[in-house]
Design goal:
With 375 residues, the protein is an alpha/beta fold. The chain is built from 8 helices and 16 strands. It has helices at 68-78, 93-104, 149-158, 175-191, 208-218, 263-276, 315-328, 333-348, and strands spanning 4-5, 28-29, 39-42, 46-51, 61-66, 83-86, 88-90, 113-115, 122-129, 132-138, 163-167, 194-198, 224-228, 281-285, 291-295, 298-302. A hairpin with a 5-residue loop joins strand 14 and strand 15 (291-295). Helix 3 (149-158) runs parallel beside helix 4 and helix 7 runs antiparallel to helix 8 (333-348).
C-alpha cells in the first residue's frame, strides 16, 4: 500500500461493532513530509451551462465551470488545504474561465496546460423535474480528453503530494487519459503518497464492463476507496480472481454480492473483499441515508445531515473533499465521516457543483436553529 498505516494489528470482524474513533488498526494516513502539497488531483474541467428548464424550450442559462476533480480541489482549498489541480483546457475563452475560476478559489493550477488544437469541454445541466436533472456532455475530442502522462510526471517531479486523488471519470475519457491515471498511481507508490479513489462511474462515458476492467487493475494501489453502494461492485474481483465465498469474516451465507435480502450485509461482504485485497479504507456513500466507512477495525455508519435540498449535483464531490480534509487533519473514521456529511449537506443546500462548498469557519453553521442570522 502507498499510505503508511497508523498502527499494526490483525483484522477484526467487518460489519460488526463500530470501531472507536482514532483506534482503527491498519488505517492509512497521509505522509507528513514538509514541503509537500496536501493533495494533487487531475482531470477534465469544463464550462458548465445550467438551464432554467427544458433545453428545447430555450430560456436562460447560468455559466460556471464543473469537473469532479476540480470540485474536490475547490472544496479542499476552501477548508484551508494546499491543493494542486492539473488538466488541459483549450486555447479559448472557456479555458480561461476554467483556470481563472480555480485560481480565484485558491487552487494551484501551474501544472495545467493549454491545448491549441482542441476546445474546452462543455457540460449542459437540464432541470427536468424538481429532483431530476439531465446532464448532456460535449467532451469528445476536447482538450481535457487529450491529457497525457507527462502532466502527472511533471506534477510529481515538482512536488509529490501527500494525497493523490483520482476519479473513475478520467480513465473513461481516452486511452491517453487512462495511461496518465495509471502513471499517477505508479508515481504515488514510488513517492509514498496516499491514494484516494472516488469511483464516480459515468454510464454515458463508458460501459460498466470497461470500468470494471480498469478499476480492478487499480485496486492494489488504492488506500481509500469511495463509492456509492451501486458502484462498489465495479471494483470487486471477478469469479476467477479468488474464492467464491466472501471470506471468513463475512456474514454467514454471504457471497460476492451478499444476500439480496440484507443490503447492509452485502455491503459489508463487498467491503471485506476489497479490504482483503489491500484497500485500507472503504467508504460507501448512501445518499440521504448518509455513509458507512469500513476498515480492518470494523464498520462505522454516519447519518446524513438534515437540510432542505436545493441541488444534489456535486454533493458526492463535496463529501470527498470533507472526508479527505479530516483525514489530512489526522481525524479518525468518525471525524472524517462527520466532516464529509457536513460538506455534502452544504452542497445539497446550494445550487451549483461547488459554489456551496463551506469554509472551515462555516462548518458549524449546520447546527444553527432555523431563522438564525449570523451578525
Amino acid at each position: 500500500m502507498t499510505g503508511q498505516p497508523a498502527s499494526g494489528g490483525g483484522q477484526a470482524q467487518r460489519g460488526g461493532a463500530a470501531p472507536l474513533p482514532g483506534t482503527t488498526p491498519g488505517r492509512p494516513r497521509a505522509p507528513r513530509q514538509p514541503g509537500r502539497p496536501d493533495v494533487f488531483t487531475f482531470g477534465e474541467t469544463m464550462v458548465a451551462l445550467r438551464g432554467s428548464g427544458p433545453l428545447k424550450l430555450g430560456g436562460t442559462m447560468q455559466v460556471s465551470v464543473a469537473g469532479a476533480e476540480s470540485n474536490v480541489a475547490i472544496g479542499l482549498a476552501r477548508l484551508g488545504h494546499d491543493v494542486r489541480w492539473a488538466g488541459a483546457v483549450g486555447e479559448d475563452e472557456a479555458g480561461q474561465l476554467v483556470l481563472r475560476t480555480l485560481r480565484a478559489e485558491g487552487v494551484e493550477v501551474s501544472g495545467a496546460s493549454i491545448d491549441p488544437g482542441a476546445p474546452t469541454g462543455l457540460l449542459l445541466f437540464e432541470p427536468r423535474l424538481p429532483e431530476v436533472t439531465r446532464v448532456h456532455y460535449y467532451r469528445a475530442g476536447s482538450a481535457g480528453s487529450r491529457l497525457t502522462a507527462e502532466t502527472v510526471d511533471r506534477a510529481f517531479r515538482t512536488a509529490p503530494p501527500r494525497v493523490l486523488h483520482l476519479t473513475g471519470i478520467t480513465p473513461s475519457l481516452s486511452p491517453t487519459a487512462r495511461s496518465a491515471a495509471l502513471r499517477s498511481l505508479q508515481l504515488a507508490r514510488e513517492h509514498g503518497s496516499l491514494v484516494c479513489l472516488d469511483v464516480n462511474f459515468r454510464a454515458r462515458l463508458w460501459t460498466a464492463e470497461d470500468a470494471t476492467a480498469v478499476l480492478r487493475e487499480w485496486i492494489p494501489f488504492v488506500d481509500v476507496l469511495i463509492a456509492s453502494d451501486d458502484e462498489l461492485p465495479l471494483c470487486l474481483p471477478g469469479d476467477d480472481d479468488g474464492p467464491d465465498d466472501a471470506g471468513p469474516d463475512a456474514p454467514s451465507g454471504a457471497t460476492r454480492t451478499g444476500p439480496a435480502s440484507d443490503p447492509r450485509a452485502s455491503l459489508a461482504s463487498q467491503a471485506g473483499l476489497l479490504l482483503d485485497l489491500g484497500v485500507g479504507e472503504v467508504v460507501v456513500k448512501l445518499g440521504a441515508e448518509g455513509a458507512t466507512a469500513f476498515t480492518h477495525g470494523g464498520s462505522l455508519p454516519q447519518p446524513a445531515k438534515a437540510v432542505r435540498a436545493v441541488d444534489a449535483v456535486g454533493a458526492g464531490d463535496a463529501f470527498v473533499a470533507g472526508y479527505l480534509s479530516a483525514l489530512l487533519d489526522g481525524e479518525g473514521p468518525a471525524g472524517c465521516l462527520e466532516r464529509a456529511v457536513t460538506t455534502g449537506a452544504f452542497a445539497v443546500a446550494s445550487p451549483g457543483d461547488w459554489e456551496g462548498a463551506p469554509t472551515r469557519a462555516e462548518l458549524g453553521m449546520l447546527g444553527a436553529p432555523p431563522g438564525t442570522v449570523v451578525r
